[in-house]
């Protein structure tokens, strides 16, 4: 029989996977994250990372780009075929083209070496806040919607929605709090990895494309409610 957690109980610590082959860097990162209260597993090679993530229990992956075997970019490609877990790249490559490639592969953040442990901890905290741990129980139904957070898929009336990365993040955030009115700035902060460079009108644009895709499945569907001057809410019924 499952027991409810007391309302004032502290949340369980996050479990992070650090993939870094430089012992000195790994030691500093492990110390900083464990001091913050995280449980951190460490691997020096990219081989086997996807299998470890598939096994479950990992909340975020810190991934060095310059690994000696298959490389961080390839590991990220593997992860994104089945998992939406936050991925933060750690790399000595600071060129814009590398940052763009990493983000296009599905990474959530990109930290160039050398970095301060304090900055790293702050970035990890922000990513965990924006990407709460997936529910291991599988897809969850919210009225007409079904959300599989682990697979990063959302269905509407049983049909899979073909969503871009940001469309998915926006709809997933609305599904986290059905009927609650969420402001544009709030949605921008939680659903966009590049929020500082994106204006609040970006939210309006993505809401428009989401509505169009929902109406392809049901011409009369309009579950995303606009609250003028405030933001948006989602009607799941």
Automatic annotation (TrEMBL):
One of its GO terms (molecular function) is DNA binding. Keywords: DNA-binding, Phosphoprotein. PROSITE patterns: OMPR_PHOB (PS51755), RESPONSE_REGULATORY (PS50110). Residues 15-128 form the Response regulatory domain. It comes from the Bacteria. The keyword DNA-binding applies. The modification 4-aspartylphosphate is found at residue 64. Pfam families: Response_reg, Trans_reg_C. Residues 137-236 form the OmpR/PhoB-type domain. Gene3D superfamilies: 3.40.50.2300, 6.10.250.690, Winged helix-like DNA-binding domain superfamily/Winged helix DNA-binding domain. InterPro entries: CheY-like_superfamily (IPR011006), OmpR/PhoB-type_DNA-bd (IPR001867), Sig_transdc_resp-reg_C-effctor (IPR016032), Sig_transdc_resp-reg_receiver (IPR001789), WalR-like (IPR039420), WH-like_DNA-bd_sf (IPR036388). Residues 137-236 bind DNA. SMART domains: REC (SM00448), Trans_reg_C (SM00862). This is DNA-binding response regulator. It comes from Luteimonas terricola.
């Amino acid at each position: 029989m499952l027991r409810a957690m007391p309302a004032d109980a502290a949340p369980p610590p996050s479990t992070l996977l650090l993939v870094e082959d430089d012992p000195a860097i790994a030691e500093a990162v492990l110390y900083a994250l464990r001091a913050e209260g995280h449980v951190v597993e460490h691997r020096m090679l990219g081989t086997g990372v996807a299998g470890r993530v598939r096994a479950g229990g990992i909340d975020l992956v810190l991934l060095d780009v310059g690994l000696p075997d298959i490389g961080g970019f390839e590991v990220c490609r593997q992860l994104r075929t089945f998992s939406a877990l936050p991925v933060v790249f750690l790399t000595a490559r600071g060129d814009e083209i590398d940052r763009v490639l990493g983000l296009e592969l599905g990474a959530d953040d990109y930290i160039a070496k050398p970095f301060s442990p304090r900055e790293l901890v702050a970035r990890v905290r922000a990513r965990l806040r924006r990407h709460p741990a997936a529910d291991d129980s599988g897809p969850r139904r919210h009225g007409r919607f079904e959300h599989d957070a682990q697979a990063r898929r959302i269905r509407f009336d049983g049909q899979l929605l073909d969503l871009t990365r940001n469309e998915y993040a926006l709809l997933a955030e609305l599904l986290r709090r059905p009927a609650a009115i969420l402001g544009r700035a709030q949605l921008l902060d939680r659903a966009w990895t590049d929020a500082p460079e994106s204006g609040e009108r970006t939210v309006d644009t993505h809401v428009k494309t989401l509505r169009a895709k929902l109406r392809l499945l049901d011409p009369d569907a309009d579950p995303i409610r606009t609250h003028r001057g405030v933001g948006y809410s989602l009607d799941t019924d």
